[in-house]
Write a structure and sequence with these properties.
By secondary structure, the protein is mainly alpha-helical. The protein has helices spanning 2-9, 17-27, 30-54.
Length: 55
């Protein structure tokens, strides 16, 4: 819900990656953000490893 709110809140402006990350960190609680980032990091690492093995 909070991600949707952030996207709708500034829909007339283009958010770069840093602005979007800062808005997200301000809007959510640390206990929610840290596990989410760890899960995202694991997913990206797995996909990068798979992509490199396919080469």
């Amino acid at each position: 819900m909070k991600i949707t709110f952030l996207l709708l809140k500034r829909s007339n402006e283009i958010l770069d990656e840093c602005d979007a990350l800062l808005c997200f960190l301000r809007a959510t609680h640390e206990e929610f953000v840290v596990p989410m980032f760890l899960e995202l990091r694991g997913l990206l690492t797995k996909r990068a490893t798979d992509a490199l093995t396919d080469l």
